[in-house]
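Hey team,

Sharing the LacI family transcriptional regulator run so nobody has to redo it. Sequence (128 residues) first:
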Amino acid sequence: MSGIRIQKTGEPDIVEASDGRLTLSVPIQIKRRSGRKLVTLPNGETVPVRPWDVAPTSIQLALARGHRWLAMLESGEAKSLKEIATREGIDNSYVSRMVNLTTLAPDIVAAILDDALPNHITLFDLAV
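Structure output:
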């Protein structure tokens, strides 16, 4: 299929060909940000990113691990933190600190999930 492509900037446009086909042109620009493609409109506005398209942060992953490991303890799937550490092949103290994340205040958990924590707060500031 060969055809002439005309690029134009500005407003969206609909062009009708002589054979009845319609061509809709929408001026957008695709940029890469953090390895992901992001659609940018002519006015510089970006299309909102869907939450499931964004990779979780290390703090979000740690919080999820802590809740998973706590659930394993509560359900009896694991008898101790040491057993979880052995299964996962990691240090017992790391498992303990991640499980401690489950006791954070709800507003801190919400900030973690919304990725709204101040940049100076790190995982190991929270995981004591």
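The chain has two domains: 13-47, 56-126.

Ping me if you want the raw files.
A.
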